């Protein structure tokens, strides 16, 4: 099982096939398996070398319980550690939700490593969680329901298998990460690599994702009508045509 090391934190990753390298970074409470589950890997692996990364605190990567371990530069360093392990200098990057936040971090801290950037359901602006969302992780169901409420997702729409996977997380690690974040919107004018941003229209994050695209010099934005935050990742058949066209134009 392949791991990269970032200052003592082990980061699990998987590689599929050959071609231009494309990093796939999942969202909060997920793991790299979700790219397989929703059909992204099968759709992309014939054209790209897919580099799927379990973010720290998730999947088979290490799960620190110290909030300081989840600072954005460390999370960017995890991706760079994987690239270094594979001796890859530059790659395309696609991140959804939390993975999109890490993508903005890649653009801020290591833009020289990015060929193009695809970001779904995310923005670079400050996020302050309401007090009632700052749970300690001792009650996984309460944690998940608070998270889904914050994202405007009806818990009844979550397939049982996905909810079971989400409830298998280390919730102390998730709670350590979920403490709000500062704005890094100052990076937007400097994002000169080709960028593609998207979000589902009912997603509470939609306006900020759309707004951020307006301040990126070389950005395209597309929307997904009627898809909430979770569905805009699950419905890969609606997302992939846009992203594969973008990647083909910038590979």
UniProtKB/TrEMBL annotation:
One of its GO terms (cellular component) is membrane. The keyword Hydrolase applies. It holds the Pfam family Abhydrolase_1. One of its GO terms (molecular function) is hydrolase activity. Keywords: Hydrolase. Residues 20-129 form the AB hydrolase-1 domain. InterPro entries: AB_hydrolase_1, AB_hydrolase_fold, AB_hydrolase_sf. This is AB hydrolase-1 domain-containing protein. It comes from Candidatus Entotheonella gemina.
């Amino acid at each position: 099982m392949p791991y990269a090391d970032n200052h003592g934190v082990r980061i699990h990753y998987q590689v599929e096939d050959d071609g231009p390298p494309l990093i796939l970074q999942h969202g909060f409470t997920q793991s790299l398996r979700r790219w397989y589950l929703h059909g992204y890997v099968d759709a992309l692996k014939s054209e790209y070398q897919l580099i799927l990364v379990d973010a720290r605190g998730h999947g088979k990567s290490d799960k620190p319980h110290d909030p300081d371990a989840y600072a954005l530069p460390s999370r960017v360093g995890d991706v760079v550690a994987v690239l270094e392990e594979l001796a890859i200098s530059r790659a395309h990057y696609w991140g959804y939700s939390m993975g999109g936040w890490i993508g903005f971090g890649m653009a801020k801290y290591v833009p020289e490593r990015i060929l193009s950037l695809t970001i779904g359901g995310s923005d670079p602006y400050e996020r302050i969680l309401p007090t009632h969302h700052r749970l300690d992780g001792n009650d996984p169901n309460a944690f998940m329901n608070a998270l889904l409420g914050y994202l405007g997702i009806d818990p009844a729409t979550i397939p049982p298998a996905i909810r079971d996977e989400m409830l298998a997380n280390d919730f102390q690690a998730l709670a350590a990460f979920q403490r709000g974040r500062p704005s890094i919107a100052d990076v937007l004018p400097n994002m000169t690599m080709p960028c593609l941003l998207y979000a589902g229209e009912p997603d509470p994050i939609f306006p900020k994702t759309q707004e951020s695209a307006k301040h990126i010099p070389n950005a395209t934005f597309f929307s997904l009508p009627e898809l909430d935050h979770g569905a805009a990742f699950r419905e890969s058949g609606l997302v992939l045509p846009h992203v594969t066209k973008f990647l083909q134009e910038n590979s």
